[in-house]
Amino acid sequence: MTLNDFDLVLFGGSGDLAMRKLLPAMYARDRAKDLPASARIICVGRHDCTTEAFLASVNTTSKPHIADTALDAAVWQRFCQRIHYVALDATDPASYTALATAMRDDPALTRVYYLATPPTLFATICLNLAACQLATPNSRVVLEKPLGRDLKSARQIIADVGSVFAESQIFRIDHYLGKEAVQNLLALRFGNVLFEPLWRREWISDVQITIAEELGVGNRTGYYDTSGALRDMLQNHLLQLLCIVAMEPPTMITPDAVRDEKLKVLRSLKKFTPATLSQNVVRGQYRAGHVNGVAVPGYRKEPGANPESRTETFVAVRAEIDTWRWAGVPFYLRTGKRMADQLAEIVVRFKSIPHSIFAQSTGSFLPNSLVIRLQPDEGLHLNLMAKTPGDSMRLKPVDLEMDFHETFKSPRMDAYERLLLDVLRGQLTLFMRSDELEAAWEWVEPILDHWDQEESDPFPYTAGTWGPAAASALIGRDGLQWREETLPEM
Questions:
Q1: What enzyme category does the UniProt record give (predicted)?
Q2: In angstroms, what is the C-alpha Rg of the chain?
Q3: Of 278, 345, 419, 438, which has the maximum CB count within 10 A?
Q4: What pLDDT band is residue 490 in, cutting at 50, 70 and 90?
């Protein structure tokens, strides 16, 4: 699909996200010849410098995030010619005249404003764009998380941004939905007949969704201490993945048809009560330990951290969906920093066979499971039981694997590449609608309120492990285990 000519304006254009992800993603699309010849990227920042000086920074800061095999000197030179820099104080309406001067005056031009800024600036930027007549009917605005701290602040953002842009112009981005494996989960569910009869409570035992990071918070304690794992990861990424797994088949792959079904899932999540919160939610905070053989400090010892901080760096939740398809099936959501491995995966575990005829000749008999791996290596794994070679009827777990890199040899798109293309095309399917955002906050807010009221600290866990023991107890009460606890030893 050919893109219309555009001006992409990156607020926070000199920031970490722009340099590490957004500019490399746009370079990749330029290299793939997706961008119109006259398309431009306008990077907006607070510092007063020339475009030439900014491009020097792009060369030293952004260029290293592009793989050597993808770098083409001629394409890089062409790409850099697209980039312009505008110094602007986002809170000062008068400074937007510099941006207005830099923009092309073409009614047919697509204008995209990407707000890679703190959410406290969303309303200010949008209102100032409107005051300078820069919010045209062909404009779109992209909002990076966090989209609020709670339901009240999220609703305020929705109202403020909505006073300038229509809902069809607002793209609330969640980069996990741009990952190839998530796209393949949609294809797996709705492009094949094989799994649909099994995708329900009668055959599925439980679903586990894990996003684990080996990294700590580093120098982001200022942000993280006001956010925590629940706001940073669970309210958005994990709940969006849950929606893709659990939603009913949409009537078609159009934006509102898909988002209507995701909204139904969020509204069907069983609400927490004070009694169920203590049983179904675990929060933890990492202490000093070793990751990949390297000693690392605890969260409270990170640079700039509050030595008495109660901010969670780990959270595990047992969720239930009150629908005919999913009633009684537990969904376990888990995320944490300084964990034993860097991975993101969805595990759909099926129920055990009702009767084993191999009981006398088989050792460990594991239920079948489907594993959708999102990172670091994207792919699908179907775990089955199979007979081992030889005379005896002995069974062992085997793994039918589809590695996307091996199966599809064509170049692959990064999540931000795909999502930026969707923004430029005006395709809203993979972006959150305002009612989705509200429903997600409505479900997690009782957890935040409970933590604000209680006196206890998060459960400590040693860096380089899979989190606090309470997380294993959470799933153990249902007679289950996290996936890494069930894998047979090699």
A1: oxidoreductase
A2: 24
A3: 419
A4: very low
Q: Which residues are annotated as a binding site for NADP(+)?
A: 46, 145
- Mean pLDDT across 275-300: 95
Predicted pLDDT of residue 409: 63
User: How far, CA to CA in Å, does 146 sit from each of 141, 167, 269, 345?
Assistant: 15, 18, 22, 22
User: How are beta strands 281-287 and 459-462 bridged, if at all?
Assistant: parallel
Residues making up the binding site: 46, 145, 175, 179, 213, 232, 337
Within 13 Å and on the Cβ side, how many CA atoms surround 64?
5
Structure tokens at 419: 């999502």
Q: Which amino acid is at 327?
A: A
**What's the pLDDT tens digit per position in 336-381?**
999 999 999 999 999 988 888 876 655 567 889 999 998 888 888 8
Whole-angstrom distance, CA of residue 301 vs CA of residue 287 = 9
Amino acid code (one letter) for 224 = Y
Instruction: Retrieve residue 190's tokens.
Output: 């709705």
Closest CA to 58 of 27, 31, 23: 23
Rounded Cα distance, 398 and 382, in Å? 8
Report the catalytic residues: 237
Name all domains of the chain by residue range, CATH numbers in brackets: 6-144 (3.40.50.720), 177-486 (3.30.360.10)
